[in-house]
Amino acid sequence: MRPMRSVLGICAVLLVGALATHPAHAQTYPDKPVRLIVPFPPGGATDVTGRVLAEELTAYFKQTFVVENRAGAAGAIGIDQVAKAKPDGYTLGVSGVGPTAIFPILDPKLSYNPARDLDVIAGLSAVDLIFAARNNLPANTMKDVIAYARANPGKLTYGTAGVAGPAQLQAENLALHENIKMLHVPFPGDSPALAAVLSGDVDMCFVGAASAMPFVTSGKLKALGIGSPERLKSLPEVATVIEQTGFKDFTGFTWNVLVAPKGTPAAIANALNKAINEISAKPEIIERFAGVGLRTMPGDAKAAADFVAGEAARYQRILEATGIKRE
């Protein structure tokens, strides 16, 4: 019996040790600086999200979260670095629609696969889009735009920030739904797209609401429709695209989520998600985000992962239906 007792004793010690080490991840994390990779240059919505998050997480955990801008390939380079990092919670990424949900569909040879290589930790921010037009366009709402485009197939021009980005894909999704044809004009960002509308070279654009707001409120451009599911507090009189068309599958906003290398310990992921939800609920953060055209995206890790999976499926349907490809 003694050998059996000895074996049982050893097993008990090992079990206690295993149980003791599991929560240690959360109790001691983080015990050194954390890298927060932002895959775009400074100044954009993803960068702003990352910097606000890093500042707040540093205060929350009493440990430094350092933003590293790793731009290139429209966000794919930075997120690839996250995917290939050690899954210990010390390399995280702020990933947007493109590198998380669109590029893997467009490029099967992409160096990483989000579903295989990344854990989605939390939703961070959403960026509402808006259709804004030149003042002399004979349309004042999206209903008018659809009627105009139907009467003038292929003549109505619209600009977005790039080819095969979420703005173009959603605009083309709407065009498919309404059986109209519009001519897409890609630009390297929202500002050039707005400039082209202001000059009259392009009829309208589908861009970040924060970028367009100064031109709309000053009367230099007119707002036709809001891309997000709800009206903007800053433009309550402008109806959403969904309200005007009844097209419930339209999602005219972009988003950012926190990602980590696949296999990051659950205790660490849960600690980060809890922190981000508490940060996102702070009135000053909500107000700070709103000031730059962002809104928070609270929820648990499963909700965030399910959201990303749903968005990827949505964009796959759009890409297959439209045949749009990256140039």
Q: Give me the CATH superfamily of the largest domain.
A: Bordetella uptake gene, domain 1
- Please state roughly what percent of the residues sit in beta strands, choosing from under 5%, 5-15%, 15-25%, 25-35%, 35-45% or over 45%: 15-25%
Query: How large, in whole angstroms, is the Cα Rg?
Result: 23 Å
Please tell me the CATH architecture of the largest domain by its name.
3-Layer(aba) Sandwich
Low-confidence spans: 1-24
Query: Kindly, what is the distance between the CA atoms of the first and last residues, rounded to a whole number of angstroms?
Result: 74 Å
Task: Tell me the domain tally.
Answer: 2
Secondary-structure class:
alpha/beta
Count of alpha and pi helical runs:
14
CATH topology category name of the largest domain: D-Maltodextrin-Binding Protein, domain 2
Strand count: 10
Helix content: 40-55%
Overall geometric form: globular
Q: Spell the H/E element sequence.
A: HHEHEHEHHEHEHEHEHEHEHHEH
Average pLDDT, rounded to a whole number, is 90
Features of the shown structure:
327 residues; alpha/beta; D-Maltodextrin-Binding Protein, domain 2; 2 domains; ten-stranded mixed β-sheet; 14 helices; 20% strand
Short description:
This protein is an alpha/beta fold.
Describe this entry's structure for a reader.
The N terminus is likely disordered. It contains 14 helices and ten strands. Helix 8 links the parallel strand 5 and strand 6. Strands 1, 2, 3, 4, 5, 6, 7, 8, 9 and 10 form a ten-stranded mixed sheet that branches. It has 327 residues and is an alpha/beta fold. The longest helix is centred in the last third of the chain and has 22 residues. The chain has two domains: 165 residues, Bordetella uptake gene, domain 1 (D-Maltodextrin-Binding Protein, domain 2), CATH 3.40.190.150; 118 residues, 3-Layer(aba) Sandwich (D-Maltodextrin-Binding Protein, domain 2). The protein is globular. Helix content is 48%, strand content 20%.
